[in-house]
Amino acid sequence: MKRNYKGLSLISLLLVLLSNIVRAQTDSTEVASIYGFYSYSSSLMNASSAPELTLQGNASHTSTGVQLTPASSSQFGGLFINGRSFTSVNGLHVEFEYEMKGGTPLSGTYGDGLSFFLYDGAVASPVIGSPGAGLGYAYNRAKDQYASFRKAGLTGAYLGIALDEFGNFKSKRFQGESRVNGIAGSWSTATSHITLRGARGANINSSIGLGPGYTGYPVLVSRSTLSNTGTVGRVLQSDRTYANTTNTLSSTFDLRNGNGEFRKVFLDLIPHFVTPTTTDGFDIKVDMQTIANGAPINIINYYHYKTSVPYTENANPQVTDYNNSDTEGAATAQTLNAAVPAILKLGFAASTGAAFQQHIIRNVKLTLPYSAVSNNDVASTCKNQPVYIPVLDNDIAYKGPISITTPPTGSKNNIDYKTFSFAKNSETDLTLYRKKVTPQGTWTFNTNTGIVTFTPSSGFTGTATMTYSVKGRTVTDSNGKIVEPYGDTAYRSVPATITVNLKTTGCVYAVVSNKMITPTVK
Question: Parallel, antiparallel, or unpaired for β 451-456 and 387-389?
Fold first, then answer.
């Protein structure tokens, strides 16, 4: 609505403008999420006191993240973010950074790798799966001579994503100390694979070793990051066979970043809609960023992980695992029940063997796909001089129905200024903070202009910081059904940080820097 200020005295005009500014800075309250989802972010650096984290095996907290294994042989460790659960109705977007470095190779290859996994949130005390090639997710069966090698797969397992440097996570094996289903045959590039395995299987026949925790977890898709030539990947078909993958990587690289190269994983689980109101599992996308602020490389492009998956249990004993026979029996056709749990929890695991390296993870973020994205901003000013920061210029929110064929578009223009909030007190805090007063100075946000103003406290010099987050807009159809949910609190961005450096010399005017550093499609 256009405001007419004609005829107002100078004092009256100033009062009107002042009231507009005050109103723009007034705190308000947002509506609780209808999805029960709240974003999660943790650096995992010096995180030993974080109550939601549980370590298993050789994992330990360090100043650079959670070390799943040190760089020594036969190590095995896991991390569960067991104190947090996530609703699955809207999918999930995951980001994390990792390091694989140090150690000693076997036949030129380091080992083994690490896994990220999702499991049923109803499991109160999860246990990681088998070590070695199982990477804490898959099972391992064995004959009696090697009974101590038997280990069930991850309890409540729904999905495992392996960053498999050595390359055995995807392989079918039938030998005395290791029996597990998988892909048989040769590869032109067998190492440095990203591999997806599915959910825990049914009790086929516990008397021969194919009992609970020792079936299922089938390989869904696998792709090497080292080459675009030859048999570099395979994907499970509906007839239970594996077809060669045809996707070409924009650039190739080794999963191992032993020389300190940057490595960041982006994982999207997008609900697969078969009708406007029904879904069948998820479409899974895995990208990797190998250069800080660089464009992610797509490795797995929307694999459809259905709720019912035909596969082959192909590492069966002829009679039973509970003897010392090395004779393999016939493979059997199975159908995996991969119904999506109502609540998901997640974790990481890693292992080493004769080939070994250090495995570290850090900077984990969990949001809904197409949540708003806020990026850090930096400004400088002089003592006692305010600075005006257009913090939303490098942020994005989404618009359009959730779909992998015509995905929603991300733009700063989709941000709803009225959803802006400075630092909240908790993930469930529904107050929208438009003004924060700190010892360093006063932060205000104008919901009309989208500008943050920082006014330093008298005489303050040094560095001041403040976090903030934003959302998009919710759109409904003529019947009131939500078709674009981005204004829900579940789609609030992970907080970004505004940093203001106050100088005492050499400063004539304020300077703002807010470069877009986050990939625009999440």
Answer: antiparallel
Distance, CA of 429 to CA of 382 (rounded, Å): 34
pLDDT score at 277: 80
pLDDT tens digit string along 373-387?
999 999 999 888 999
What beta strand segments (E) does 199-238 contain?
Answer: 219-224, 233-236
- Judged by phi (left if over 0) then psi (alpha if -120 to 50, else beta), residue 248 lies in beta
Q: Which residues of the chain have pLDDT under 70?
A: 1-24, 506-511, 515-522
CB-CB contact of 63 with 315 (8 Å): no
Global pTM value: 0.88
Average pLDDT over all residues of the chain: 91
Beta bridge partners of 421: 469
Kindly tell me the burial class for residue 19, based on how many C-beta atoms sit within 10 Å of its own C-beta (0-12, 13-18, 19 or more). exposed
Side-chain-side CA neighbours of residue 221 (13 Å): 20
Between strands 496-503 and 377-382, the pairing is: parallel
| Residue 381 φ then ψ, to 5° | -155, 175
Three-class SS state of 69: strand
Q: What is the pLDDT of residue 260?
A: 85
Q: 208 by DSSP, 3-state: which?
A: helix
Token pair 């997806």 in the structure block, residue: 196
User: To 10 degrees, the CA torsion angle through 414, 418, 422, 426?
Assistant: -90
> pLDDT digit string (tens) for 415-430?
999 999 999 998 889 9
The secondary structure of residue 337, as a DSSP letter, is E
Distance between CA atoms of residues 284 and 251, nearest Å: 20
